[in-house]
Amino acid sequence: MARSDTQNSPGSGRVYIFDEIRGFAILCMVVYHAMYQLQYIFMVDVPIFFSDWFGIIRNFFAGTFIFISGIMCRYSRNNLKRGVQCFFLGMILTFIAPFVTEGGIYFGILHFMGIAMMIYGLFGELLEKVPSLVGIIVCVVLAIMTWNIYEGYIGIPNLFEWSLPNKAREVGILFPFGIINDSFATLDFFPLFPWLFVFIAGSYFGLYSKNGSLPKTFYRSHIKWLGNVGRYTIWIYMLHIPVIYLIFSLIFR
After folding, report:
1. How far is CA 200 from CA 63, 161, 205, in A?
2. Is 164 a member of any domain?
3. Helix or strand (DSSP H, E) at 119
4. Peptide bond connecting 157 to the previous residue in cis, omega within 30 degrees of 0
5. H/E element, 210
6. What is the pLDDT of residues 145-166, one digit of tens each?
7. Sign of the CA dihedral 64, 67, 71, 77?
């Protein structure tokens, strides 16, 4: 591992550790999508893909990536513009996916990130009226409450559950909110619920980061190449799915 002593004064600029964590998270996402394509497109058995703990790890790193993206909203001058650009890139993937893979991408992480950034761009000032700690706690509670919305209910398993109306699931157009039916299929899916609450929680945490309240090690570069990966995550995400498909096509077909 390459190590750098590059430092940044807390609160005055880039928070290097977030780049490094985001870089690691996107690499994990690349591995996940490679396994997905092996299992469902190229019919190569990947037993680990169905392990409960593997799903937990997948959600953890995806959540970490989304949380840090929420933090970065505090550093952006125009989140609304960034959101439109990100959503547009997501729509490009939706358009080209059927031509390069055997499946579609409907409301993947780029679509989600774009909408989340636009929501923050439009309502950020209103959200800032809520104290950061209170905002984080509320977002955590709402994320837990909506975590299983794709299974047709809101609440906490074995404690209390509110089932969604069947018509809401059958209508078929509420998938951006996580309300889906059995016929819904996509290669990548990050609905607004519960992930929007993870994103907004990150935006509240970002206030501590921007104010320089975090430990000094957060503002220091530790693994330079990983930090560089973290700065180009959107392009890595845009390219890795078709590239993986092309590589596997050459190997298996």
Report:
1. 12, 24, 9
2. yes
3. helix 109-127
4. no
5. helix 192-210
6. 999 998 889 998 778 889 888 8
7. positive
Number of domains forming the structure of the chain: 1
The tokens for 244 are: 């993986």
Distance between CA atoms of residues 209 and 111, nearest Å? 26
Q: Is the dihedral of CA 18, 22, 24, 28 positive or negative?
A: positive
Does 6 fall in a domain? no
Assigned domain for 8 exists? no
Alpha-carbon dihedral sign for residues 48, 112, 214, 228: positive
The answer to whether position 27 is within a domain reads: yes
Contacts of 166 (CB under 8 A, 6+ apart): none
Scored b (16 or more CB within 10 A) or e, 78-91 reads ebeebbbebbebbe
Write the pLDDT tens digit of every residue in 35-72: 888 888 888 888 887 787 888 888 898 999 999 999 99
Listing DSSP states for 228-250 in one string gives: HHHTTHHHHHHHHHHHHHHHHHH
3-state secondary structure 107-118: CCHHHHHHHHHH
| pTM (2 d.p.) | 0.86
